[in-house]
Amino acid sequence: MGDNSLLDSIGDGEIGSEKDQKLESAKKEMEEAREENKMLEFFDILQQDKPEDAANAKGVSSHEENEESELVSLSLGMSFKSKTKDERKIYKRDDEGMDQGLRLGLDINLDPVDHAAEALNISSTESSFGEGGKDEEPCPMWPPSKVLKTMRNVDKSEAQHDQPKKTRVCIRARCDTQTWRKYGQKMAKGNPCPRAYYRCTVSPSCPVQRCAEDISILITTYEGTHNHRLPMSATAMACTTSAAASMLQSPSLRSQHGYGLVNSAISFITNSSAPNYNPTDALNFSTNQVSKPHQFYFPNSSISTLNSHPTITLDLTATSSNSSLTHMPKYSSTSLNFSSGFSPLQSSMPPSPWSSYSGYFNSETLTHNRNHGGYLFNTGNQNQPYLGHLHQPIHTSNNNFSQRPLPDSIVAATKAISSNPKFQSVLATALTTYVGNLPLPEQWK
DNA sequence: CGCATTTGACCCGCGC
DNA sequence: GCGCGGGTCAAATGCG
């Protein structure tokens, strides 16, 4: 009920002008918060090497919490209002998590990327992945609900450590090469289309399932990890979902501050796993990107934290072409560019595929929605009734970039991220995964 | 006849 | 504790 209060308040009985006024007021607040946050981020960058960092950061957090209704993200100005105590708890916890591990100027914790790398390595035993992975604990498999029943004790203990019980990856796509067996169908409340349940039929024991709604665009929710060999296209998708889920499972990554990085990593992965993915593009990406910019941001990805089912939604219906940019003008944006044309970075970055990286950082609002079960909403679709979303995408476009002056904080933060060895290592792993076993620069290994 | 799909019942978790 | 809703099971049905 409470989860939908925002929508209800917007949708019920309000005169349009009043709505507009409220929206305008909210926008102003957001803008102010963004500006303030940018200043705070820059301050954080300057202070990041000092031990009192945490104290400063917490000071900011506590200040914001005192604001009560204005829980502000430090992630490049994205702001949102936390509506419930539980949500505030989550965000507070995430802020605390930020104090652990790497802390870069953008308040992005890079540790989760390691989880992404681990996720990419899930298939390494059955495919050629994973040479660049770390020797930490293996990425967990996500069992089907039946198996989960037997693992509730584990889940409970995980919950005590603020871990989600299950992580879902929701993918919007126009086709799917997987073979699925339908095992059930239900009418979902509030949705005219039935929700169907499928299981992967490649292997009887494969825990991967999907849930789909039959509209023109298939919305697929993945839970689990394939435990068998997959076709190339399916492997890419599996890695996408695994990486997304793994990153989402990371407590520190669930921090909204990390979402930009999450989405950027996922953007890369999903782009190469999209139905129209062309391996040749990947090769070109790794070799000729200076002359052929490869857009692999992913504009319509989103993350929700529905209770124990944090879900990341990836929209594969939008191609990787510049058409994605048509979404951009809807939001105020800040450019962040790893491209070779970005001179502030070039001196610090090795000559590598990533020197031409054109990424898309999309920080989405955390959203609860009970009716959608937490895994069917799509923030990218403006027809969806999520008027409460606050978008602050940070996109790059060689075209747009040259027209926008960058705040110093962005430049410094970008430099910090791109020059981080861990980040580069993870990206190298990802590249190895999708490009093949092409030789990588020594400094990436 | 075998396999896939449909559909109603059942189980279970969660919110009130 | 109760009700609701999501998820699963399994018998019934359809189809090649």
From TrEMBL:
Pfam families for this protein: WRKY
SMART domains reported for this sequence: WRKY
Protein keywords: DNA-binding, Nucleus, Transcription, Transcription regulation
Gene3D superfamilies according to UniProt: WRKY domain
Disordered: region residues: 1-72, 125-146
Alphabetized InterPro entries for the sequence: WRKY_dom, WRKY_dom_sf, WRKY_plant
Domain WRKY stretches: 176-231
Top-rank taxon: Eukaryota
Chief location: nucleus
UniProt keyword Metal-binding present: no
Ranges of Basic and acidic residues composition bias in the record: 16-55
GO molecular function: DNA-binding transcription factor activity; sequence-specific DNA binding
Cellular compartment(s): Nucleus
GO CC terms in record: nucleus
Name by which UniProt lists this protein: WRKY domain-containing protein
Species whose genome carries this gene: Sphenostylis stenocarpa
Lineage: Eukaryota, Viridiplantae, Streptophyta, Embryophyta, Tracheophyta
